[in-house]
Specification:
Distance between the termini: 84 Å
Number of domains: 3
Number of strands: 17
Bound molecules: hexanoyl-coenzyme A
CATH superfamily of the largest domain: 2-enoyl-CoA Hydratase, Chain A, domain 1
Radius of gyration: 28 Å
Strand content: 15-25%
CATH topology of the largest domain: 2-enoyl-CoA Hydratase, Chain A, domain 1
Number of helices: 21
CATH class of the largest domain: Alpha Beta
Largest sheet: 8 strands, mixed
Shape: elongated
Length: 527
């Protein structure tokens, strides 16, 4: 009898259990279904969950707080309380490594950020920082939720504070996949990398309507803050892709190059590209004449593993190249002047672009390889009045502050202040190599002769012959790598064909480098 009763109770219990689990599954299905996929597809965009599928290794995404709903009232909000509150948060794996992500759902209140929505993001950001794993945000939202007033604004404040707290601790990547206004634009700006997808992504602090009302300008969403504008004009976008599939592939590739946090080294990878592969082709790629142009991308492709590199800001400040690549399987950050664009001169944008990249590499223990072929800083009132002094100083500051392994290779021209700034020995590179074609000098021979021997040339019976003679002397005396090598300012003059082998060897030697800066709250870099 007793036994029978127990059986009956157990069966009832199991039935309740099954019913509860069924109820839960239905609820989860409802959450996962989200708002209308058709409406999102009609906008030319993928749904939140399709996006997360593309970001993460198959089936690894785990959502948290899918059941969260807002408790706001007014403006009819009490009658509209969708699950997730317009943002999906969780973690999964990318190439087998833990990554956290949050994704705005445009179908719920335009992906706008209210109190509950913000609290979910705050929690996820705190988790990512504690776990020491990268944070990826999928931005497709209309900024502060208008109906929730100041609580929405405060929600953004909490995100900004966490973005800054996690800066240099875990990699933070923002993917912009829709109209991002106000706070939705500022948070990406505080992160390490901003990806935008052409045609669907826009970023601006104030939209076209406000622009029209305040300034009278007529401008479209795309013209104001589309992907191409931020790729080529403002420099806000680090990478621009043609579609979402390509974008998530690129983000996954970038993540494979980054450490999970600032306590780890970037992940190594096996390569079939021999470390001692000769680069004979470099002699054809780089003209010996200092004023002839060539594409530095071809040089980078020749030196690095398998010709693969990940370029940042490809269309902004094109006179300098910043890229991640692997050398002998290990990740390096490459900074290179680009003679094919404005002769590779350093200007305001190039200095800003390279300074940020040097900082990013230094924060995440990525060694720096600097390829130098620079005629100097860009002269002119425009640059001076816009502050080339303080912007150029940013690059100087970033290099001087960097404690990661630093190797410089001077290919050809290295003139004046620009030579010093491009990670010269005097500002702290660990190893400096020069090709025999190199010319390190205060300035080009023509300019130097005209200044130093101006009076003598003017007084000469044949001024042109005197000028030519002085230029020749200056070249022979000063403009070759041996002058710098004699003085220890380059560590060796190398055969260009050995560049890859020497770089791989140098970086392996410096891998365990430990350099500390003096104790301080933080430096005060030029802004
Ligand atoms: C609440 C919003 C919203 C918002 C849009 N929606 N913006 N709900 N708060 N900020 C809702 C709409 O009512 C609509 O709801 C749905 O989202 C889709 O919006 P549409 O306008 O129909 O879409 P679309 O034509 O594609 O235009 C998208 C948009 C536009 C460009 C984002 O909606 C827009 O300009 N929104 C306002 C953006 C903005 O000014 N945000 C505040 C920024 S200030 P239904 O129910 O009809 O589907 C800010 C300050 C932060 O963020 C602090 C920074 C320092």
């Amino acid at each position: 009898m007793t036994v029978d009763t127990a059986c009956t109770e157990d069966t009832a219990h199991t039935e309740t259990h099954v019913a509860k689990v069924t109820e839960l599954l239905l609820l989860k299905e409802e959450v996962a279904r989200g708002p209308s996929a058709e409406a999102q597809h009609a906008r030319g965009k993928l749904t939140v969950r399709e996006r997360l599928e593309l970001l993460f290794d198959r089936g690894t995404f785990r959502e948290i707080e899918g059941l969260r709903r807002h408790r706001a009232t007014g403006f009819g909000l009490e009658d509209r309380r969708p699950f997730t509150d317009g943002v999906v948060t969780g973690w999964g794996r990318v190439h087998g490594r833990e990554v956290f992500a949050y994704a705005h759902d445009f179908g719920i209140f335009g992906g706008s950020l209210g109190e509950a929505h913000a609290a979910k993001i705050h929690k996820l950001m705190d988790l990512a920082e504690s776990a020491g794993a990268p944070l990826v945000s999928l931005n497709d939202g209309a900024g502060a939720r208008i109906q929730e007033g100041v609580t929405a604004l405060a929600g953004y404040g909490g995100i900004f504070r966490r973005n800054v707290r996690a800066s240099g601790v875990i990699p933070q990547i923002s993917i912009v996949l829709g109209p991002c206004a106000g706070g939705a634009a500022y948070s990406p700006a505080l992160t390490d990398f901003v990806f935008m997808v052409r045609g669907i992504a826009q970023m601006y602090v104030t939209g076209p309507d406000v622009v029209r009302a305040v300034t009278g300008e007529e401008i479209t969403h795309e013209g104001l803050g589309g992907a191409d504008v931020h790729a080529a004009v403002s420099g806000v976008a680090t990478v621009v892709c043609d579609n979402e599939h390509e974008c998530f592939e690129e983000v996954r590739y970038l993540l494979s190059l980054l450490p999970s946090n600032n306590r780890e080294l970037p992940p190594g990878a096996a390569t079939a590209d021999p470390p001692d592969r000769r680069n004979d082709v470099l002699l054809d790629l780089v003209p010996a004449q200092p004023n002839q142009s060539y594409d530095m991308r071809a040089v980078i492709g020749e030196i690095v593993d398998d010709g693969d590199f990940f370029e940042l800001h490809e269309r902004w400040a094109t006179n300098i190249i910043c890229a991640f690549a692997r050398l002998g399987g290990e990740v390096a950050g490459i900074i290179a002047n680009q003679p094919a664009s404005q002769a590779g001169v350093l200007d305001i944008h190039a200095s800003e672009k390279a300074a940020r990249f040097v900082q990013t590499c230094d924060a995440f223990s990525i060694p720096l390889v600097t390829l130098v072929d620079v005629p100097g800083f860009l002269p002119g009132t425009g640059q001076e009045h816009d502050g080339i002094i303080r912007h150029g100083a940013k690059l100087l500051y970033a290099y001087c502050n960097a404690t990661v392994p630093r190797v410089q290779v001077i290919l050809r021209k290295a003139y004046g202040g620009a030579y010093i700034v491009m990670d010269s020995r005097s500002i702290g590179c660990d190893l400096s190599f020069a090709w025999p074609t190199n010319e390190i000098a205060v300035m080009g021979a023509e300019g130097a002769a005209n200044i130093v021997f101006r009076r003598e040339i003017a007084a000469a019976p044949d001024p042109e012959a005197a000028r030519a003679q002085r230029i020749k002397e200056y070249r022979q005396e000063l403009m070759h790598p041996y002058y710098a090598a004699e003085r220890g300012l380059v560590d060796d003059v190398i055969d260009p064909a050995d560049t890859r082998a020497i770089l791989i060897d140098a970086l392996a030697t410096l891998r365990a480098k430990h350099a500390a800066l003096p104790s301080r709250k933080h430096g005060n870099p030029p802004a």
